[in-house]
Task: inverse folding
């Protein structure tokens, strides 16, 4: 701390003059009775004023802790990274989730105009890995039916395994097929696109639908609320 800063601190003390002298000694580097002063407080001690405040600067505050990792962080572009739900979140026989891309906030809606709220995340062309469900173990693309009840059930399953909730306004258009490269991700079943039936709406009421690359009315995206 500089001489001027120490003197400003000294002005509020009962022994302002003594503290100012101590700070001048510190600034000059002149040895005191206890050797060269390392702080205003050390100078004061050497002069018999050990009740005065120390003029040394306070240590800088600790940096804030890093933000917690996003739960979907393992999901990376082009279905490369896989998220595996914990035992407490696993639902509907899902053992892994992938996506072609992750967008947060979700941004523009796929149907109609407008954008999703900022507390949303969009998973494009999502896939689910199933284990112990009512269909062969493996990885599947998802049929969304243009946002019909089966599509809602499928997106709900995806979000639920992340500990999130499907956005109430989620919708997708009609169309065909997942992007190129999906055949390297899905399998080993010969039927690689499925939907979760809403009738009956069982947790593992999956129905094989078609091939991922040509899947009719695929799940172009699934949007979940993050809070």
Result:
């Amino acid at each position: 701390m500089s001489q001027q800063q120490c003197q400003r601190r000294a002005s509020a003390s009962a022994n302002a003059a003594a503290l100012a002298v101590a700070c001048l000694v510190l600034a000059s580097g002149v040895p005191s009775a206890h050797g060269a002063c390392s702080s205003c407080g050390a100078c004061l001690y050497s002069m018999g004023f050990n009740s005065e405040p120390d003029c040394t600067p306070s240590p800088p505050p600790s940096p804030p802790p890093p933000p917690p990792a996003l739960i979907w962080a393992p999901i990376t572009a082009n279905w490369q990274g896989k998220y595996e739900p914990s035992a407490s979140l696993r639902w509907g026989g899902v053992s892994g989730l992938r996506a072609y891309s992750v967008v947060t906030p979700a941004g523009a809606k796929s149907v109609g105009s407008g954008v999703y709220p900022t507390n949303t995340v969009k998973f494009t062309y999502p896939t689910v890995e199933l284990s112990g469900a009512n269909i062969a173990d493996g990885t599947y693309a998802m049929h969304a039916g243009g946002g019909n009840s089966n599509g809602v059930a499928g997106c709900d399953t995806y979000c639920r395994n992340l500990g999130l909730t499907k956005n109430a306004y989620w919708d997708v258009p009609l169309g065909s097929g997942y992007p190129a490269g999906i055949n390297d991700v899905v399998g080993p079943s010969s039927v690689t696109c499925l939907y979760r039936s809403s009738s009956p709406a069982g947790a593992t009421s999956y129905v094989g639908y078609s091939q991922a690359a040509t899947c009719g009315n695929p799940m172009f995206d699934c949007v979940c609320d993050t809070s």
About this structure: The radius of gyration is 32 Å.
